[in-house]
Amino acid sequence: MAQQEKIILTGDRPTGRLHLGHYVGSLRERVRLQDSGDFDRIFIMVADAQALTDNADNPEKVRQNIIEVVLDYLSCGIDPAKTTVFIQSQVPELYEMTAYFMNLVTVARVQRNPTVKSEIKMRGFNADIPVGFFTYPISQASDITAFKATTVPVGEDQLPMLEQTREIVRSFNRIYGEVLVEPEALIPQGEAAKRLPGIDGKAKMSKSLGNGIYLSDPAEDVAAKIKSMYTDPGHLKVSDPGKVEGNAVFTYLDAFSTPEHFAEYWPEYANLAELKDRYRHGGLGDVKCKKFLNNVLEETLSPIRARRHELERDIPALYDMLGAGCEAARGVAAQTLSEMKHAMRIDYFNDAALIAEQSERFAAGK
Fold it and tell me: Cβ of 249: how many Cβ atoms within 10 Å?
């Protein structure tokens, strides 16, 4: 038996530029996985069709942000020679698969999905929830299974979505035969990677809250945002003991700083543990901590920003790359769909036995 290929499927909704939360939570890990050599194929999907489920009245927002997301991908190190980047809506096989999967899932099951319930509440949907949005866990199952992904990098909040996919795969394979692959989750490691807060200290960094640091932000904007960053409201004077828990500056330092950064920019401290200890005991001001964080983030963001400016000079080349990615993705999805339809016995024109049996039966007048 041939060894199963190791395949990753991941992606993002193109509703805005990507920020440090995306970078910590997924982008830098995708680059690591891409360059690890541990996977046979990696697919990254720009999920424009999914974005339209709650932006149907503003398609221009989605259309314009596709290139923004792709620029962020490539600027961070995603390599089209190693990773297939494609646009969801340009692979129509995904929607046919979704239609078949809808017959395997009940309305009650989708309603019980904790991620769906949370998303509906967050967006303020009541009875007016779009059907497309309500059923997006089923669409997501098509996205994953079309490429026979064995691994899907997800945050813990997305685990119920992946479990829905696994259930659909089991149902399909039980009814029609072993065609689809049941994917496994790859959870980001470390608290900072799970959820980087906004600069205001709120749990989520997002465009709507205006609390994000974006990968494409100019250096002066990054510096200004760091200056306004939430710290410890009880740390009023330099001499006051401070709290690092819930302090956004230290959460960001957890995610980005290394001992090498301390040696370069703040040799008074050997590592973050020493800095935290000093802050807790008092005698360390927020301004110095923020200046250090700015140096750390600029070391990360400066090459990303430079690469983005280079890529922006040839937008047609990016669309050529995306076109090739969509063509490659569609070829893989079409093969999976063909196997599904054969297993479901709805590939009528390729079913010589069916045609012969019916010819014989009708010729005999039966």
Answer: 22
